[in-house]
Amino acid sequence: MKHQGSGRMWTGSVAGLVIMGLAGFVEAFEPTNLTGCVMWLRAAEENIQTNPANGRVSQWKDLSGCGNHAVQSSGDRQPLYQAEGPGGLPTLFFDRRNNNDAYAAGLLTTNYLNGAYSVFVVAQVVDASERGYYWRRILPARDANWLLGTWPDGGAFYAHAEGALTGPSSYQKSVFTFNRVYTLAAVNTLAEQRFFVNGYDLTANASRTAGPGRLTIGGAGSTSVDPSDALISEVIVYGSALSAADRQQVEAYLAARYGVAPEGFDGPVWSGAGPDSFWGTAANWQQEMPAEPALAFVGSARRASTNDLTGLTLHHVLVWDNTWRFAGNPVSLKTDFMSFTAGTVDWELDTALPAGTHFFSVKTGGKLNVNGGSPERAA
Question: Which residues on adjacent β-strands are paired with residue 150?
């Protein structure tokens, strides 16, 4: 199966907000247009101070007017400024050096968030230290076990506020891909706290309303031992819980500025509730099959299934538990294959891989057999 790639700019919607005229939208909107912005960090050469001893960033200037700059006095934990990152714009690289968490970058803030709040971060995990799918605190806290980041099991997004906001229902729809740009956000009304990635609500337990106290930008900058190993381009904080419309406006601004795309969050998750084992049977899925599905297989129903669809491009595949066998028509796999089960997975579909990096991740003790021949590099 051959795949003809093409460059494009996404002009769609983020959580219901239609984006039109992206360049004009980015220029017209600033986070301080909304009431209550208490921190706005945007990577640019004029917005940072560097340590002359190592050339690394010692301060990231707050543009909100509140003076809540993010700082790091330890040269071992200072991030690196890069002129080009997500969206081709400047960024800060929160790296991990010397194979040692003591050299993992993070900037510290002093503004306390203990009431209602809304926080946003733009990040791209690059995995330069080759830690693979592991805990990453992209936006953690100094004063509480609070974080927006990733979870090692299944390569999922994760949010924690003295207890998990996420869970299996969100993990199965939220596999993250290295080198892809994401927006992570949390909105806390004090009655509930919700977690969003690329505008999609990935909350499993909204009752976790603990706040972070003071934020850390990037992992392991304070007490954490979970480095982010990521490019972080922008952080926005409000001292209130934004309405859905205002949250979507911030997400749309970030999506337009940094090229954040919406694919890979629509499922579907396998149910096996249909009368047969075919992928084309709608009753076998918990959600409708989107144009570029992110397939997740979970449960015990019809664990031998057949792809009867043609011309199917998969965003990613996640196998969550049990043993599985897949056969049928060829597919194209856009990103990654995550086998989180300790069982055996037999993938018997000829699989074309479009240009780019693809990760095949198998849980310790599990087995993935690609029996349709080695995955084919699409021409």
Answer: 136, 157
d(CA 147, CA 306): 39
pLDDT at 16: 38
Q: How many residues does the chain have?
A: 379
| pTM (global) more than 0.85 | yes
Per-residue confidence (pLDDT) for residue 223, from 0 to 100? 60
Q: Which residues, 6 or more positions from 100, have their beta carbon under 8 angstroms from its beta carbon?
A: none
CA-only gyration radius of the chain, Å: 21
**pLDDT attached to residue 377:** 41
For residue 91, what are the β-bridge partners?
Answer: 82
State the CATH architecture for 27-258: Sandwich (2.60)
Q: What is the pLDDT of residue 268?
A: 94
Helices assigned H by DSSP within the chain:
22-28, 168-171, 244-258
pLDDT, residue 219, reads 80
Question: Up-side HSE of residue 20: CA atoms within 13 Å toward CB?
Answer: 2
Q: For the chain, which residues score pLDDT lower than 70?
A: 1-27, 154, 220-224, 372-379
Q: Output DSSP code: residue 16.
A: T
Q: Say how many C-beta atoms besides its own lie within 10 A of residue 232's C-beta.
A: 27
Distance CA 179, CA 193 (A): 28
pLDDT score for 27: 64
Helix, strand, coil distribution of the chain in percent, nearest 5:
10, 35, 50
d(Cα 298, Cα 313) in Å, to the nearest integer? 20
